[in-house]
Design goal:
By secondary structure, the protein is α+β, with helices and mostly antiparallel strands. It has two domains: 22-236, Beta Polymerase, domain 2; 249-356, Poly(a)-polymerase, middle domain, CATH 1.10.1410. It has helices at 6-45, 139-156, 213-220, 239-247, 256-271, 281-294, 304-321, 340-355, and strands at 2-3, 62-66, 69-75, 79-82, 111-112, 119-122, 132-133, 136-137, 163-166, 172-177, 182-193, 224-227, 234-237, 358-359. The longest helix has 40 residues, at 6-45. InterPro entries: Mab-21-like_nuc_Trfase, Mab-21_HhH/H2TH-like, MAB21L/cGLR. Residues 58-248 form the Mab-21-like nucleotidyltransferase domain.
């Protein structure tokens, strides 16, 4: 290992950041071709799912969580005119449709129910029993339908040598062979709601000084998504809003993005390497947003050697406490279902770094 001052990290790691960008871009290029082929076929099999378009630039449907771990949102169609549910009701069904003597638990944090009647317009297929129970569109049933469609698409598109299903998971995961390395890809049916902002996301907070009110309105105009990634409840997602926030980070000439990129590189090389890291880029992004909100002034982000340790200290605090609030939905802990032993190991490595900054030899 090589001991460095924080100022030296810029020179030592930014070259690695550029190399990572090139490698990730190539992997994204290959993965999005696979996603486009699969979802085009899936859409022809079932009208409820849209094809993910191919993009020469940034693809809003593909999220890089780690170099070997991607997420692709697959938009559903036939659901338009979303409105928040106004009446609370108990649910007494199992995924098999049998009755329960006691009601199911209510959704918490980033979760919510989704009733077909919450949409002003809906295809009749969303009322069918293969995805609907008692008027609810049930994510586990949607995933069951979707998994079979993915399996069929892999065979039909002759991708069996490049793409394989990953078993023993509640959601739909595939392994994709890229020219650099295998990528594990989660394919998630997604209800896109671009016309509204979730009532659960009580943002911005009172007296918040970052981002500006004008930017807040722009970000909220992108709406939110609902992901089919659990059994009964849909998961709120704000990928598009978060991406806009990231893109506009340094309009004042600050070094926020540079701090984030260096922290991500250290996370992948030293603190939390591996194909299935306990800390993802989304966690780091959330730490960055909270730090930007706490330090909203231009002067706070002018000097890398001061701004970067502050960001790492925030990461260490969150990881060591096993607590990281979602940026938009404050009552949701992003580490709630994370292995605490793995978090403690990361916290120890970050603590060691703060005492004596080190990186792996190039």
């Amino acid at each position: 290992m090589k001991s460095l001052t924080v100022g030296d990290l810029e020179d030592c790691l930014l070259n690695k950041v550029d190399l990572r960008r090139q490698q990730i871009s190539q992997a994204v290029e290959e993965v999005q071709k696979v996603v486009h082929h699969l979802t085009t076929n899936i859409s022809s099999q079932d009208i409820r799912f849209q094809a993910v378009p191919y993009s020469d630039t940034y693809n809003v449907n593909i999220k890089v969580l780690a170099p070997s771990q991607f997420l692709a949102t697959v938009p559903v169609k036939g659901l338009a005119g979303y409105r928040e549910a106004r009446e609370q009701r108990w649910r007494y069904y199992t995924l098999q449709g049998t009755r329960l003597p006691c009601p199911l638990r209510d959704p918490e944090g980033l979760q919510q129910w989704l009733e077909v009647e919450q949409f002003m317009k809906s295809l009749w297929q969303w009322h069918e029993t293969d995805v609907n129970i008692d008027g609810d569109i049930v994510p586990a049933k949607v995933l069951l339908v979707f998994r079979k469609l993915v399996e069929n698409a892999i065979r039909t598109c002759h991708l069996s040598g490049k793409v394989s299903m990953l078993g023993n998971r509640s959601s739909v995961w595939v392994a994709v062979e890229t020219s650099a390395h295998p990528v594990e890809l989660e394919l998630v049916p997604t209800v896109e709601i671009p016309t509204a902002w979730s009532e659960k996301a009580r943002w911005p907070r009172c007296l918040q000084r970052w981002p500006s009110q004008e930017r807040v309105e722009c970000i909220k105009s992108f709406g939110f998504n609902l992901l089919a990634s659990s059994s009964y409840h849909w998961q709120l997602s704000f990928f598009r809003a978060e991406q806009v926030l990231l893109e506009q980070l340094d309009d004042d000439g600050g070094c926020r993005r540079k701090c984030f990129q260096v922290m991500r590189q250290l996370k992948e090389d030293v603190w939390c390497p591996g194909n299935r890291p306990v800390i993802t880029s989304h966690h780091l992004q959330t730490v960055l947003f909270w730090t930007c909100e706490k330090y909203p002034h231009v002067k706070d982000w002018q000097v890398f050697s001061k701004a970067f340790p502050r960001l790492v200290r925030k990461l260490h605090k969150c990881v060591s406490q096993h607590f990281l609030k979602h940026y938009f939905v404050r009552n949701s802990n992003l580490f709630q279902c994370t292995n605490p032993i793995e978090l403690d190991a990361v916290a120890q490595r970050v603590s060691t770094f703060l005492k004596n900054p080190q990186i792996s030899p190039p």
